[in-house]
Amino acid sequence: xxxxxxxxxxxxxxxxxxAFAAAVGACCGVPWAVALLGVSGAVALARLSFLLPFAxxxxxxxxxxxxxxxxxxxxxxxxxxCSPAGRRALRWMVWVAAVLVVGLATVALSFVRIGIx
Length: 117
Fold this sequence. Notes:
Order of helices and strands: HHHH
Number of strands: 0
Helix content: over 70%
Number of helices: 4
Shape: elongated
Structural class: mainly alpha
Distance between the termini: 40 Å
Radius of gyration: 18 Å
């Protein structure tokens, strides 16, 4: 598996877990969740609220792995003769994913804090 696939996969997994955490956190507090999912769907998401901390921990772990893969020294470039420009897009992708995951976690935790979940 090449480096790009690893970074994209872990960053995408972190985004998925962050989105899941935001959906679980906002399931009962936002009227659109009930309208979109129906009452039974909102209740099903509310029953999954115990998974919220695990989803956030998993998203953080996947982001840590993505950052490690994006910023680790490559074996081919151990003598510092190659340019980091080839990894610049991967690093941007990881930073964008990190900002989105932090935003999604903030949404999820804000609903928990006000006592909705």
